[in-house]
Amino acid sequence: MGDPRVFLRVKLGADGEMDVGPAISRIDVHDEDRGTDRVTLVMDDHVGISTDVIQRNVPVTIEMGWESEHTTLFIGRVHNIGSYTRSGETGRLQFEVRDLSELLNVRPAIANREHSGTLRDILTALAAEANLAIGAVAIDPMPSWPDSHDRLLGQGDRTNWQLIQDLARDYGARAFVEVNVPPGAPTTTPPVSLLYFYSEDAMLAEQPLGKLTLCHGWGSLINFQITRTGSGAMPPSEAEVIDPNTGVVSTESAPAPAAPPAAPAISGGALDQITAAHGEGAARTAETGLEVTSAAVTPRADAAVPARVVGTPSDPDLARRRIRADPTRTLGLSATGLAMGTVFMRAKASVEIEGHSSEANGRWYLRRVNHIIEQSRAANAAATAQLTVKTYRTSFEATR
Predict the structure, then answer these.
(1) 3-class DSSP state for residue 321?
(2) 227 contacts: CB under 8 Å, gap ≥ 6
(3) What are the backbone dihedrals phi and psi of residue 98, each rounded to the nearest 5 degrees, phi first?
(4) pLDDT tens digits for the chain (400 residues)?
(5) DSSP state, 207?
(6) Which of 3, 11, 104, 284 has the most beta carbons within 10 angstroms of its beta carbon?
(7) Residues 266 and 295: beta-carbon distance below 8 Å
(8) b/e map of 357-396 (b: 16 or more CB within 10 Å)?
(9) Rounded-to-integer distance, Cα 400 and Cα 391, Å
(10) What is the dihedral of CA 322, 327, 329, 335, to 10 degrees?
(11) Domain boundaries, the chain
């Protein structure tokens, strides 16, 4: 069912002088926990100007949500114009917008450039080259160069963005560009694109963005499906590398896996909603069903023994980094979900799930979030400017 309260603005130009939101029939904001975010848009064209208006590198600002709750969700530039088709008098243009991390995807003018200083200093300098500011660098301890082996950080033939992403993988972190108000600025300040570098531990230390409830007819969560990935949650148990300069073998062993956490309690909030909507009898039936299904699914205390990793990279510290466990998938569980449009949901953060089994209830890390608005045009040719049905949904992938 459509909701007339869906809010969408797609503003073109550095100052947002043109809003093509009313002509957008579908928009999909794809938010990943690594790399560059992108948006796919489909634009209806009744007057034949879309290919003149939509050009590569045109700035785009996207505001979306509900009339009562909306925000600037994305700032970027047109990256690719995919296709243009016509059906009678109506044309349809599909194009892609990417976030401003694309400005970092350039190679340095100096061959084999080397960097020194703390990681924060290096990221600040790289961001400044793309006219971006730093949002936060949250990692402890803070890496610095020259390192313990008296080496500078070599860039090689990598672009600035590739270098930043490689650092994020090496240090168990996520590097991304996100739209937000600059640190220390008043909340009324317009949001801008900021570069963030968060360790996995720092991300999980943040409070969940909110709560999604699976309750038919009442909750915001429409569906939630779980897949067990088993040993995919485990890093190698032992890694060995050889320093090419000294020939010294460096071996690191991972600690024994921790015991699985206790199963979360059945969500009382969802049962309260069922009671209010359907009565105590339905709530007791639901609670009994949740107890039965939850008892049948318990976290595994055992796990497949990971393989030993042997290699000869130039970085002897790589052995230690390769055995680091990913705290966002300690139980080896992944899930996909669909919710009513929820502007607070962003990848690289956590969300609470309630109203499911004990295996599903609780905190999940969001690896991917898609904000999708679809607008259907009236069948009457005379109502060419009228978009009669709007829907806003948020799909996501999560792990724990």
Answers:
(1) helix
(2) 333, 334, 335, 336
(3) -120, 155
(4) 455 689 999 999 988 889 999 899 999 999 999 889 999 999 998 877 888 899 999 999 999 999 989 999 999 999 999 888 887 777 899 999 999 999 999 988 888 899 999 999 999 999 999 999 999 999 999 999 998 889 899 999 899 999 999 999 999 999 999 999 998 889 889 999 999 999 999 999 999 999 998 876 667 899 999 988 655 555 555 666 666 666 676 666 666 555 555 555 555 555 666 666 666 766 666 566 555 444 444 444 444 444 454 444 555 566 566 656 778 888 888 999 999 999 989 999 999 999 887 778 899 999 999 999 998 765 554 555 555 678 999 999 999 8
(5) P
(6) 104
(7) no
(8) bbbbbbebbbbbbbbbbbbebeeeeeeeeebeebebebbb
(9) 29
(10) -140
(11) 237-254+306-324, 266-294
Distance (Å, whole) CA 388 – CA 165: 43
Q: Please identify which residue in the block is written with the tokens 């739209």.
A: 179
Assign 345 to helix, strand or coil. Answer: coil
Question: Amino acid identity, residue 143?
Answer: P
| Residue 126 tokens, joined | 């790289």
SS3 63: strand
| Residue 204, φ and ψ in degrees, nearest 5 | -75, -20
